[in-house]
Each structure stands twice: as C-alpha cells, then as structure tokens.
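Hi V.,

You were right to ask for the full record rather than a summary. Here it is.
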Amino acid sequence: MSLLTTASPFLPPAPTAAAPRIPRVLAIAGSDPSGGAGIQADLKSIAAHGGYGMAAITALTAQNTRGVSAVHIPPAAFLTAQLEALSQDISIDAVKIGMLGDASVIDAVRNWLEKARPGVVVLDPVMVATSGDRLLQEAAEEALHTLLPYADLITPNLAELAILLKEPAAGDWAAALEQGKRLAAQTGTTVLVKGGHLDGGAGAGDNPASHGGCPDALVNTGGLLARDVVVVPGERVPTRNSHGTGCSLSSAMATVQTRVGDWEAALREVKPWLQEALRSSERLDVGTGNGPVHHFHHVQQQTEDHRRTGSAPAEGQFAAALRDAATADLTAIYSLDFIRALADGSLPEHEFAYYLSQDALYLNGYSRVLARAAAIAPSEAEQLFWGRSAQNCLEVESELHRTWLSTRTADVTPGPVTKSYVDHLLAASVSGSYAVLVAAVLPCFWLYAEVGETLHAQFLAAGAPESHPYAVWLRTYADEEFAAATRQAVAYTDAAARAASGSERDAMTLAFRQSARYEVDFFDAPRLHA
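Predicted structure:
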C-alpha cells in the first residue's frame, strides 16, 4: 500500500512457518447428474478454494441444464448413517447444507448437528431452483425453520428469502435488505442477501455501494458483525449460465470462512472468484439451457497460456499477462469515490485517517511477508531486495505513526479488508513457493505505483495548489526509488515464473489476482467504514 524503497538495510529472514491446514468441508446436499449444481458444484467449489471436500447425499435428481424432471429422496436413516460414519472418523471444519427434500431429512440433519457441533455451518435453503423448479416439499418448510438457528450463515436467493418470511419476493435492493434483516432477527444468525436475481440496475437501488451492479450484503441485527449490514458491491455479469451459482457461493463461503475466520473477508474473497466463474462460463459449452459456472477458470486460463507458449513463457510474457489481468482492478480503483476525492482534495479527513491507520497495520504484516520472501529467495540479489523492502515497510509504518497518526484519532483495529489481505499474503508466505509468494506481493508494488503515478499527474495538472490538504502525501507518489523498486519486483516475479512449473504458474496467477482485488477493496474500505 504505502511507498517502498530499496534504500534501507537488510532485515534478517523470518523463521519458517508451518504449512496451513487444508480445510475439511462436508457438503450435505442433493446430487445433480449434469454436474452444475448440488454436491457436484459444492465439491468443485471447495476444491477451487483449497479445501478437502466430502459429501453426504440427501437426494438424487434427474436434471440437466433445462430443468429437473424427477427427484428421489433416499431414507433419512441412510443419510444419518453417512453423517455418523464421517464424523466418527474425520474432523470436520465446516459444513455446507444444501438441498434437503423433506421433513425427515431435515430432522436427520438437525439431530446430527446437535451431536457433531461443527465449527462452521452454512445453510443454503434450497427450495426453488434457478429454473423455477420446486426442490423442497411445501410440507417441509416448517421443519426447515427449525434448522435455521443451527446455521452460522444462511444464503437464500430472493425467492427463498420471501418464502422463509411468508412474504412476496422483494422487487428492489432496499426491500431485499429489509427482508434480510427480518430473517436475521428471527433466526439470530447472519443472512447473506444476494442481489443477483434483481433486474439489471434495479439491484443498485439508491445504494452507492452497489455501483449499479450486483451487490451482496451480510445482514445480522444481533451484533455478530461489525455493522448490522455490510454491503459488498460487484458488477453484474451478463450470462445465461448461472446454474449452481447459489451452491457454489455457499460452499466457497464455508471453505474460506474456515481459513480467514471472518464472514466479510470471506465474501470479499469469494465474490470476485464467482464473478469470473460466471464470466468464463461460456467456455464450458455444457447443455442447451441454463449452463453451469466455470469453477476452475483460473486453472484453465493458465493451462491454455502454457499450451500456446510452450513449457515456459518467454521473458516478460508472464508479467505482461499479469498486467492485463489487473486492468479491470485498476479501472475499478480509479472509479472509487475515495480515489477521486483524494485527488481533488475533497476527501473527509476522517476517511483519510482511517486509510492511513489501516495502511500502518497492513505494513506491519506486509513486512513479515517480504522478510519471508528474502529468506527463501534463490539469489543474493533477490534476498537483499526483498529484505530492504521489508525493512522499509517498518520505517514507513513508524513514520505514519510519528506524523499523521500521532495527532489524529484513528481506528487501530485491523478492518475486515486489512485482515483478509494480510491473511492471504501470510498464507502465500507459508506455501513453500517463492514464485507464488512474490506474485502475491507484486500488486502492492505494481498497482499502487500505477495509481500513484496517475494521481500525482492529476495533482500537477490541477496546478498543485498548496491549499490541497493532501499535497505532501500526493507528492510522495513521484518517488523514483519506488518506481525503480516496482520495476525490479516485476522482473523478479517474471523470472520466477520462467523457472516455475506449470501448476506453480497457475498458483502464481491466482495469488496475484486475489491480491489485486484486495487492492481495490483496500482503497474502498474507508468509505464503507464511514
């Protein structure tokens, strides 16, 4: 986030950390033979987020991309046998519950939850498919209500949200949020309100956080979130291929929550992945109706790049591909109210103070990650570079506290985005891969440098008025040492990619894209916090 230079002495390497445990996630849901929804989508989604997926089947369906033609629900006693066999042998970190079918199945799941008490439970109350087919017997709706309080997160679509409340479906975003609040109050748990089924701009309502696209919101009126309503904006992806979106989202949330421990941070990681899964869905060419999303879009894209370019990319080719991948994130950053107000000087000081306080907290964690890069770098030059950058993080953090933050009241608690971003980088730092680690830290150099150069140019074009409240801050963006450090970081990352295996380059791309998205969210966090 803040400017880094290469002028500081080398910081000794950090000790080796233990590898993070892979989340063990159980999906309790129905089977979709077309592979787009249900258990099949759950297992793909769990794997795409680094989890180990398990499955207990509640129902068998005959369906394809055009609809459901038949449903068979095995005896509830057999579901109980599946669940008990798993929990007697395997430690389950998280549970995602999907299609249940009838009251006896719901009772079996509830009884098992009472005994097993898994740490994370996400309930996707599958009642109506995207195709409009009914997937839960109406007689079982009351039984489903008894299951809701056992969940930590409930993820209904808008039709299901209305059914649970016995109300008409919400017609706009404001009405959907109000319904989410009512369900959260009734159940005492967190509700994920999804704007995907609202028509076009109707999802935006009057809420600027939606950016006129496709917002989602975490709602909890019982104080389990930092705020009663946390809106995470997103763009609407025009596609007919949304089969299994709800299943995929809920199982991804269960997996990521196990790792990051925060619902907002989990949603901010999962939502960009799901948007790209929708955007890439046509590449699958599955069925003639409502096709599935592309769970492994990040893997296939890099695989195709390898096929075109051979076993290793040419010099500069991998870096160019990363820069192209970050174009949408840079565009999103420039459209943020925070960036516009920072450039023209209209940014409220309390938002700037929050940004700086979070920056200081971020730099403390970022310095440890850079020190780890220094420890495992393959050459002395790279060791020195990452070590000096790590030391400079600490110096910049100290300077922030000595100047701006020492005279202002600012939040000294890491916000959800800050925590999530640092957790993502720390996970990369213990992956054992130098290449993945440097790809993860690169956006903080590259995107920050490009945004800084643009803001400084706008500042100069406006006549660089001394009355501008952030004049001193904006001038630091012209720092040539940081520009040189950024070029060096790009070069080292590109070299690491040329020496990496194909699967390692896949992981590099994913780590870079996740960090780039966090850069967008970090700049947007002060406005959302306010």
